[in-house]
Specification:
Elements lengths: L4 E5 L5 H5 L6 E4 L4 E13 L3 H14 L9 E5 L2 E13 L2 H10 L5 E7 L9 E3 L4 E5 L9 H9 L54 H7 L1 H4 L7 E2 L13 H8 L5 E2 L1
Parallel strand pairs: 3-5, 3-6, 6-8
Antiparallel strand pairs: 1-5, 2-3, 2-9, 4-5, 7-8, 7-10
Helix pairs in contact: 2-4
The structure holds zinc ion (ZN).
Amino acid sequence: MIARSLAVLFAVVPFGALSAYAGADFVLHPELKELRMQAHFIYYGSGFAADSARIATEEIGRMWSESPDGKPFVVRVGSEDYDLRMEASYEIVAEADVRAIAKANVDPGVQFIRLEKGGNPGDRSFYYLSGNCGVFYESDELGISTTAAHEFGHGLGLPHPRVVDWRGKGRPPVMLPRGCLVDAQYQWDPSVPAGKPGGTVKPHTRKVLQFDIDNLDLGHKLQFDVEGRASLGRAQNTILGVSPQRSIDLDDPNSPWIE
Ligand SMILES: [Zn+2]
């Protein structure tokens, strides 16, 4: 029996309605001048707190909808500017059922996330680049560290920025990886010199910036159908084993993944 708890955040998008968009995870609303990015997260795993699924999904939906200055993100499609809004929803499924669900999925907007407690050496959340699957560890401080939003960015096809020294550039973008240099107020410890222990980016200070949105290059990548729907990424549907970092090569050797 499938124990499904379904929750919808930020917008009323029941799972059934989202499935009807099979293959589409972006919808243009010309009358509202809005581009909606939709993702539905399916969590499976062992021993995680149910609240972690909600917290991670909320973080992703919030961060990819809100710029630091409160203005909407802007995406140019053709000759028009659209406000970007994210609609994120989630459900938790039993590990015994997730493979069948993934096998039937054709929608890259549906994400399959192994959720684990973590805390062991090597347990670092990751995502497949331009894929729809990965693993989140509770030990990565889901909901406050911006890790879930960062990993989802990888799923959207974003690598880490080429610049690893972000000093003088202000707030770090969400895709800046751990270990990068930033202005003092964004460090783990603002009082230490850059590069010394504590002198690297504190992920909690990252925000999705228009910089990250521009890097998605949505205006060029999205091919809209007559109904204004498009998708990004692929329905890779990889289901990860219990020790993802150790089983990854066996799972999908041809697919790049990134922390
Ligand atoms: Zn990363």
